[in-house]
Amino acid sequence: MPRTLIEPQFPIERLSILDSDGNLDAALEPKLSPEDLKRLYRAMVLGRRLDERMLRLQRQGRIGTFAPIKGQEASQIGTAFTLEARDWMVPSFRETAAMLWRGWPIESILAFYAGRLEGGRPGPTQRDLPVTIPVGTQLPHAVGIAYGIQYREEDAVVMVYFGDGATSEGDFHEAANFAGVWHGPVVFVCQNNQWAISVPLKKQTNSRTIAQKASAYGFPGIQVDGNDVLAVYVASREAVDRARAGDGPTLIECVTYRLAMHTTADDPTKYRAEEEVKAWEQKDPLTRFRAYLERKGLLDASVEDAADEEIAHGVERFEALPAADPLGMFDHAYAELPAHAAAQRAEVAARLQASRGTGGVDPPEPPSPPMRGQRTTSRWTA
Amino acid sequence: MAKLNMVKALNLALLEEMERDPDIVIIGEDVGVDGGVFRVTEGLHRHFGGRRVIDSPLAEAAIIGASVGMALYGLKPVSEIQFSGFAFQCFHQIENHAARYRQRSQGRFHCPMVLRMPYGGGVRALEHHSESEEQFYAHIPGLKMVIPSGPRTARALLVASLRDPDPVVFFEHKALYHASKEEVPDETEMMPIGRAQVVQEGSGLTLIAYGAMLRVALEVAETLQAEDGVGPEVLDLLTISPLDREALTASVAKTGRAVIVHEAPQSFGPGAEIATSIMEGAFLQLQAPIRRVTAYDVPFPGFAREKANVPDVARVLDAARETLAY
Predict the structure, then answer these.
(1) Residue B192 within a domain
(2) Measured between beta carbons, which residues in chain A are less than 8 angstroms from residue B56?
(3) How far is Cα A109 from Cα B189, in angstroms, rounded to an integer?
(4) B224: domain range?
(5) Residue B189 domain-assigned?
(6) A364 — pLDDT class (breaks 50, 70, 90)
(7) Among this protein's residues, is A313 annotated catalytic?
(8) Among partner residues A124, A332, A338, which is closest to B242 by beta-carbon distance?
(9) What is the C-alpha separation between A180 and A185, in angstroms, rounded?
(10) When you count CB atoms within 10 A of the terminal residue's CB, does the N or C end of chain B come out lower?
């Protein structure tokens, strides 16, 4: 018997509409209203400015370790923008801009990174999961939520975020496989920012693109210029519409770049060249979109100041939060605290009571949890 | 009243609860058309269809991970891992997520789900098909860990687990599936999670067991009664976590002696927590050191040697007699 070609080539598209030199492909330009274009820009600026402020807050010790988003604003806002309130968003740990767009209060985000459980609580009707830290493990959750949507025949979709490193995890492949088999309304958004801490993409996968990994699971994958908010928006709009129409999942690979460190606990100069960072700074998603809006006469000079003011109010609200009550650790561990844990709670309560009674000080807040890749030894080796 | 074996009793609980609650879905490998490798879900696919009884792809992490998503969404998944020895491939989903979502989201989301897994030795099976790993789950805050000892407790505890607002790891001993039949009430019966049961009142010694070890403990009690004239108390734990410390303390405060039997290896196993709880609650009443009869601290051996590893009547009887003679 002859060898027979049973699969044709899987074509993978790359979508780019507004490049870093400001060139626009007018045929592909989305028909967004001036108001929507302004909203996109405001959201990207807010994400950038909060990121910068958080870095200062972290350096001052007012919040703990966090994962900066600088450079990835278009990937996040271009996708989150296509969701409705009834849709679900499943973040990993580098989606601060998308979370802001979805309505997470600034003070919650800051509280979360200050080690406060309260910061992880979504609003009462908000369909967003809190930050997930173990890499890639949130992807199956998105697929399960999508199954629920199918089960109840609801008009909603799920968008799940992850990085290039996550595509090496088994959970990515298992989730993609389940999503393909179940044909669920899931949009997989990979922010391919080129670096998983210190490991570059070429050491992460031998695939030419991440988008093509979708082909193995029987659904479309597309690569987009992740620093071009128009391209990200168009790809995401298509994927969300497809999911909503019952036509199954899509994988969007946003090719972007992490301009800052993995988290505030690492030093990227150890593993990547300054020239590479400089080259990507030329492709900054904000610069080209600002120029695009300027050409259209839509640039509002007050956007940056307005973002800073919003952030300042958020920081004020964060700093006005009462000290973390140690007893809070027992809240929400179970629906009803089992007897032995209730006894432990009573013990903590009694100790607190005693220390207050003697004019003692409250026990210090526990340090915020270290994240993957945190170099806890640096202080000893420095 | 109908006499059912444990497989049929579990099947009955699933059938009744699924009829009561349309949010319950079953997901796992071979749970649908095939009815599960142990037939626990037999007939449910025919009755409820493939949307509610899901033959999933073969991937434990996504079975549990997707179940977490379903639970967050508002469904109530019953997720079957074909053998507990394969659950290490989804352990991260259990510890990182199922157990933590209530706290992480500060009560906005929770994970009401039941993770069913066959466990335990004595069935002449291949590697990874005979282990007892309850201690791993019992150690995780946010989870509950339940192990029935026969058809009636299996049905009543599975119903309770399905109605529990928190994730429950539910172990079913393979050797018990077809071991015996028991009267199971016609009406839905529910036993509270977190409560042990005194299955035989007695004095002089408390035998503490769960799962398939309950039968061993009862046989030891019978032998002690016949040959030694001692009628020990037998406690069936039923829930490993949260542990019923009150029942343990009450029994041993009365009898003064305790022998704990479990199939998990000894070191850092459930026996250590049980013994410490007894010591904390009944130290002054103890007449003898607490003994543990458990599997040995080695990986579970092939089935040609499993009889020497899993506690049997002779080993428990020796420990009981030494404790009584102390």
Answers:
(1) no
(2) 178
(3) 46
(4) 197-325
(5) no
(6) low
(7) no
(8) A338
(9) 10
(10) N
